[in-house]
Design a protein that fits this description.
Mean pLDDT: 95
Strand content: 5-15%
Helix content: 40-55%
Structural class: alpha/beta
Radius of gyration: 20 Å
Shape: globular
Oligomer: single chain
Number of helices: 14
Order of helices and strands: EHEHEHEHEEEEHHHHHHHHHH
Low-confidence stretches: none
Number of strands: 8
Distance between the termini: 41 Å
Strand order of the largest sheet: 1-8-5-4-2-3
């Protein structure tokens, strides 16, 4: 059995209605809170008044910070500078991955007070993070990134010289993660599609990761089964309670597994694509995963036909296609076909929709070899990485 290391996780509460536990949990950390949310959909929902009234009932005062879009280092630094003097007791992040990542980074720096640029991987001095972090409670309202279970906050600077990098440390892990599937009710179909394919990609990539372990394999397998049964159903009807639970679970598990064993080529490409172009992270994953899986399988057959990832890809092909009798090659074909069919049915746009052109491929490839690419099951050469992009432009 392969040895493994299990890093820190939050205390996790999962299930319909667990949001009601927030006030009592929050009161453990004090009486002054920062609420970090997305651009505004939460405030327009019935959940907002329930959250704020519940906090007030527990004697908790709060400041609200809205995060429009993916957070930047400047956004985090400005928030820390403006809020440090208020001596906040804890931070609650409620929203999609962007809101949770912003909340996580802000919670990490409210006490130290330095710039997040000091700690971003691959950017600046990469100083060790000493902390301490302000206690952080994570509450996802989408089913995708799994940020509620991870130790990294992904921050972006978009443009020609842009980057998408992580502020990462065990001290940033949330104290509590509350996963209430009922919060997915208001997700539009496009958000369900992009986030769901992000979760599925994270589960698949962690399952075949070069660092995969028996514990994460078993978790990822259950997460992929939940995504198989829930994603298309939820996309068609967010009122389906079973599908909400399945996708909330798949997203949570994807965060746990990626935090333990890493990801692969899709996420390696997602970093420069998200930095250079206005393309949502989940869309990147959804539009690339079928092609990236095909090229990984082809590279493995060519270079190491006995690699264990080939059998894993076959197992997933049988799982997602619900065809348990297939031989290995047929199962690989079924996996790719299923992923392509879901990409089409979920109406995930091609890269050209966001301005990516064939002339951009060399620059994207040159910036794709971050931490995620390092745990891809096979080392892809530049031509193979370029082929993934070319097929989806």
């Amino acid at each position: 059995m392969t040895g493994f290391y299990l890093s820190r996780l939050p205390q996790i509460a999962f299930g319909s209605g667990v949001l009601a536990n927030l006030p009592a949990i929050a009161r453990k950390f004090g009486t002054r809170a920062l609420l970090v949310t997305g651009a505004g959909s939460l405030k327009d929902s019935v959940h907002w008044s329930r959250i704020t009234t519940g906090l007030e009932t527990e004697g908790i005062s709060w400041r609200h910070l809205s995060i429009p879009g993916e957070p930047s280092p400047r956004m985090v630094d400005d928030a820390v500078a403006n809020l440090r003097s208020e001596r906040l007791d804890f931070v609650i992040g409620i929203g999609g991955g962007s809101a949770l990542d912003a909340a996580k980074a802000i919670a990490g720096l409210l006490i130290p007070g330095n710039s997040v640029m000091d700690h971003l991987e691959g950017v600046g001095p990469e100083l060790p993070y000493i902390g301490p972090a302000t206690p952080f409670i994570a509450i996802p309202t989408t089913a995708g990134t799994g940020s509620e279970a991870t130790k990294n906050a992904v921050l972006s600077l978009q443009g020609v010289d842009g980057f998408k990098k992580s502020f990462r440390d065990d001290k940033l892990v949330a104290e509590y993660a509350l996963i209430d599937p009922d919060l997915l009710t208001s997700c539009p179909p496009a958000v369900v599609a992009a986030n769901g394919m992000d979760a599925l990609t994270q589960l698949l990539e962690s399952y075949v990761s070069s660092r995969a372990a028996p514990l994460t394999d078993s978790l990822a397998w259950g997460g992929m089964k939940a995504a198989r049964d829930g994603l298309l159903v939820l996309h068609a009807d967010t009122g389906n309670a079973t599908a909400r639970e399945q996708m909330a679970y798949a997203a949570l598990i994807s965060g746990i597994t990626l935090a333990q064993v890493g990801l692969g080529s899709v996420h390696g490409l997602a970093a420069p694509l998200g930095a250079f172009f206005p393309i949502p992270h989940g869309v990147t994953c959804g539009t690339l995963v079928a092609t990236a899986t095909r090229i990984n399988i082809e590279a493995l057959w060519a270079r190491d036909p006995h690699h264990p990832a080939l059998e894993k890809y076959a197992l997933v092909g049988r799982l997602l296609s619900k065809q348990g009798h297939l031989n290995r090659e047929a199962a690989h074909t079924a996996l790719i076909d299923t992923l392509e069919a879901w990409t089409h049915e979920l109406e995930l746009p091609r890269l050209a929709h966001y301005g990516v052109a064939h002339a951009d491929i060399p620059r994207i490839v040159a910036n794709s070899r971050g931490s995620s690419m390092k745990t891809n099951p096979v080392l892809l050469d530049d031509d193979e990485i370029a082929a993934i992009l070319s097929a989806r432009i």
